[in-house]
Structure formats: C-alpha cells, structure tokens
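Mods, move this if it's the wrong board.
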Amino acid sequence: MLVSYKWLKEYVDIDVPAADLAEKMSTSGIEVEGVESRQDGLKSIVVGEVVSCEDIPETHLHLCQVNTGDAGPRQIVCGAPNVKEGIKVIVALPGARIAGNYKIKKGKMRGYESLGMICSLGELGFPDSVVPKEYADGIYIMPSDAKVGDDVFKYIGMDDEVLELSITPNRADALSMRGVAHEVAAIYDKKVNFPSIELKEDDKKTSDEIAVQVDSAKSKTYKSRIIEDVKVGPSPLWLQNLLMNIGVRPISNVVDVTNYILMYFGQPMHAFDLDTFKERKILVRDARDGEKLTTLDDVERELTSDDLVITVADKPVALAGVMGGLDTEITEKSTNVVLEAALFDGASIRKTSQKFNLRSESSARFEKGINEADVTLALDTAAAMIAELAGGKVLNGVVESNDYKPQSVDVAITLTKINSSLGTDLTIDQVVAIFDQLGFETSVDGENLVVTIPPRRWDITIEADLVEEVARIYGYDNLPSTLPNAGNTIGELTPMQKLRRDTRTVLEGAGLTEVISYALTTPEKASQFTKVSTELVSLAMPMSEERQTLRNSIIPGMLDIVNYNMARGNSDLAIYEVGNVFVKFGNEDDGRPTELPQVAMAFTGNTDFYQAKGVVETLLQDMDLRFEKETKLEDMHPGRTARVIVSGKEIGFVGQVHPAVAKVYDIPTTYVASLDLTGILENKPEQVVFTEIPKFPAVKRDLALLVNRDTENQEVLDIIYSAKVKLLKNVSIFDVYTGENVPTDKKSLAYSLTFQNPEQTLTDEEINSAINKIVKKLNEAGFEVR
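Not the wrong board. Structure tokens:
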C-alpha cells in the first residue's frame, strides 16, 4: 500500500518529517517498508517550451529550439514522436541528473548539437506501469500554465513523499487512505478531518432508468447510481499526479475517479457504459458452467459455478470484484455511466482471482475485508466527483438490492485484564483516553469497560484485540521489561532425547550418514516392513497421492532414498534415520495415532548381512542381546533376516530386503535394520560399571562342530554359555561350511572361544578343563565335535 504524504496531511493535521512518521507507525503496529521522494537524486530539470520543431531528414529525430528561461532558446535533438511546436515539456539541462543517476551532457546527434534532453516520465523514474498510455511511447507534455524555467517537480507531484506500508492480513482497514488517516490520528492523538461531499442530484430518478437484483448468497448488497451526459477525457493534473504517486496508471476522468475512491475508501468500484446495456436491469448471480466473458484485458474467460458475475440481459458483463467486461467498458464515446459499489464474499473473489490469475487491487480488498459502513458514502462521493470532473448530471437516488447496514460490535474488558496482560499500572482514565484516540466509544462501570467498535475496524472482536490496541497506542517501548521468574530449575535432556543423541553418535561413528525421509507416503508403502496390520492414518486433503498416509515404518522412505542415490551414481551407501512412525492401536481417546520413535538403517553396495548385524551389535553392545531367525516379515528375505532380542523382548529386525521388493524399488541387494527406541530405552542399563582392563593375557581356542542344517547359531551359543564356565569371556563364529566331507543334511560351524582369568595367567590344565566342560554340554545336545 503506497500512501501519499501530502494527501494524508489533508485529513490529519500533522507536521512531522515523513521518516519520523514512518518510524512511529512501524513501532505501533503497521510497518513502513520505506519512504520515497521521486525528486531525490534529480537536479537541474525544468519546464521548457518548444519554440520550434523541425524534422531531421532521413531520421526519426527532431531538431527543437526550446525556451528554458535562459537568455535565448537552446537547441535540443529529440526522438519522441509526440514532440511539436508550442508545447511545454520536461527539460534536463546539461549537468542534470535523471533516473539511474545518469548525467546529461552536451553532445551531438547526427551532426547536430544538443544542449540538454527533453524527458519522458520514465526518465524521471516513473515506472512504465503508471505512465499514462498517451505518454507511454513519448515525452510528457506539461500543463499550459506551467512557468518556463521552474523546477518540474511541483507540477508533476514529484515533490511529494510516498510511504510504502506493509499491511498484515489483520489490518486490512489500512488498505485505504481513510483507514491510514484514522491510524495516524490515533498515534498522534489528532482528529481526522474528511471533507463532506456536495452531491447535487437531478430530478430524474435512478430507479426509472435501471433496476438491481441480487440472486446469490455471495453478495450482501449491490448499489448503483447513474450519471448522464458525461464527457470522458483526461483527468485533471492533480488527480493524475496523485494516482501515479500511489502506483495507479491514469486512464480517464471516469475510471480515475473509481481508482481514487478505491484508494480513498478502500471500496472497489466499477463503471459501466449504460448505453451498451441490452436491458436496463442488473442481475448479480452465480455463473453457469461454460459461460464465457471477455474481460477488460481482452481475454475470453470460461466461467464455472464458483464464479460470481454481474449480468445484463442474462449475459455476464463483469467478474464481480475482479475485473469488468470489455463490452461495457468506459470509452471516449461513453456519455451515460452506471456506477456500482457492492459487498462481495471474499472467499469467492479469492477463488476466482486465483483461478484466472487476475490479482487486482479490488480483489485484494474484497479478500481481506472492507469497511462495510462506507459503501453508500463511497458511491455518492464517486458520483459527485464524476459530475465535477466529467460534467453530466447525477440521477436522483440509489438503486440497491437491500438496505444493508453493518452494526458496531461491543467488546467487554476489565482494567485488571489489560494491566495483567501488559504488566502495566494504567488507570481507567488512561485506558478510556486511548480508546478515544482510536475513535472508539467506551462505557465505564467501575473497572469494567464496554468498548463499541465501529465497522471500520472489523479486526477487533475479542478482549485480546483490545489489549493489543492499548499496547500499541500506549507504546510498546513504554511497557515495563521484566525477566521471567524461572527459579533454579536445571535444564537437562529427557532420557529419550539423550538416547537419540547417543544413537546418532554411535551410528555416525560407525560410518553411517543421517538422512531424513518423508513421514507421509502411499498407503501401500505405509504398511510395508511391519508384522502387525494396523489401521492406516491418511490425510483428509493430501498434497499428492504419494504423500497421503502416515508411515508405519521408516524403511520404505529409506529405500526411496537408496533408489535416488543409486540413480545418481552413489552405489555404496550406509545411511540411518532417527524418526517417528505412526501407529493406531484403536484405544486412542482422541482418534489420533500414537507416535513411536525408531531408528532405521540401510546398507547397499560393498556390504553384507554381517556388516548390518555388526552395526546393530555396536549400538546395543551394553545390553543382553541375541538374534533369532525371522520368517514372518513378508518384505524381508526369509533366510537372511533375524529378529533382534534384548532382555527377552523383540525390539526390531535386521536382514536383507526381499529380492522382489528390491526389484519394485529398483535397487540392488540392500540390507536394513529397524529398532524400537522405546524398547532400547526400557532395557538400557542405568549405569555402566567400569571394570579394570585385565593385566593377564587371554587365550583363544577354536572349536568345530557338525550340526544339522537347520541348527541356528544362537542355539549353539546358548548351549556353550549354559556350561557356565567362568573363564569364558567371549564366543564368536568365524566359519560356516557345507560341501565336501560333510553330509548333505549337516553343516560345520567353527567358533573361536576366548578364555581369561583377571587374577593370574591361565594354565593348560585350566583351559583344557574348561573346553572339556563345554564339549560335554555340546555332546549332550547331540552335536558332534570335530
């Protein structure tokens, strides 16, 4: 929102530098992004009069003699198509600075000396989007009463300062000059002074010429006036300058008035050429699917029932609140004008503007809200201005769909509530004075206040809104600053937070890289790599089909990451993720799923099962860990997958992804592991007891067994440890053999047994005794020691 400081001062009696006003507004709730004066950086730019103008043969250039108030005319070469004798123009003298810090120098063009430059508005810094179309490709023609030799800035409004406001959605009341004036008046404790209009109406009635009907819930009211016998032409210079300074292109006196009212009241308006109407009745209704309308930008739009349209003779003539139609636009030939002012549903306008990519100043205001109390006043003001600037007569009365009158809102609050919220000690008189500054009426009963909020501040509806208003007008910098009383609580990590950190440290120390996958996936992937079938949790309005269901396992997302990396040449991967899965057990009171923390790993490339298993063992090294064969996970290889058991409880699995599943994900042989962090936390030793490193050497002995093909490693380990040999410190398998010299129904397992006595060196007798004890247990279990 661009605000002309000169225009603002017409309504609020303030005399402070624009930069000070910007700072004051920014610290009281409406941020000012910047203050600009178009004349800054420009110099030696004056009004000139073209005394003579001759064409330079075989060029598009013109040789002009220009009077700039010096001793005599100066010669300037100009290429603008609209330069001619007798007009007054903008002249940059030699040594002048124009837009872009470009310096004008004496020079020659086609052999002719040029002592300056005749300028367009663009060369003075005006953007192309606001330059009047008649001057878009040429120089700007100054008014005939401009004094030769004067600075041009005062004639084209460049001596004004423009504030750029950053309006948040809750303060859409400041999307109008009147709203900004109320805000500034409240900040400086001033009164607003809006001029009253003098609307002279003809005896002829509007209702005799046109009727209005609303047949849609998307419009609260629709009002129209008619101005007859207008003469469409350029707006006066003051209006053109004002519109250009606030970012609006001047078009014609009638259209410029509607844009002026839009910026002044924040009330979108539209003007129709009455003589183009095939029926003298306006109907506001929902569009029909397939209806078409050519808008002012000369684009044919196909409408749907979501759109709201203004129709005449059952044909759309405007997209309500967004853009008018080409067939009924105001042109130089228009003489009779129909003005509309309405209240349209913001959600409907937003959908239409987004669908057609037609974001406009009008649609933005309907979306964010407008002052519903000023609709009629804005319409009357526009009619009076058109009659003044374009002639004609305003017909008597307003035709409307209904006499909609918004009501003020009463909000109750107590002085204690205000002071306790702000930490202040304000009196009731101070608070009432602040509400008076804001233009709110207040009734007081003890410390209870009832504040009447006018319709122009539709953002205030609850106690908290009033507290905010008091705070910003009183001054945020005046509020007391106190530190929170936090006591002597010592901050620390929760056990789960600490476990997550420790897990990351261990896995990254083992060479894995952390990844983060999407928690949302497809319903098919969400239920993979789980044994128990649970109810899936899906979003009501997902962004896409690939991101609609909360995951039950982290593994599918990691396999997608493996696929992504493999497609880009990263063939050796070792990755992990610490995250949550979402499981619905059916006993949740609020229907929401339970979040379970897990850690998952994936290995591919130069790897095997034992690497994955080794990383799991490293992570769980302080626990009572064992592995058992897993055959119930359909998405895992049945012969290369193990359940992870800690203290007798299953907390996850490790193994190879089933080849069929790997093919679906388009990945090579991949090993994964998934562990429940809650299960790890429950079985994690509270304290690791330090034991001194033994001073005496350990002794290793190898033992080979002949066992049945279906015998598991864990079964053999259990038997070895059941011998309860105190000197036995570790048992590890180092060879599995099937083939020559081994029966087809058997296999050979080779183990390395480590013995150690922390108090003395072991003797051969002690070692042999321990081995014999273990061999006896193995023989009793039916295993043959080789």
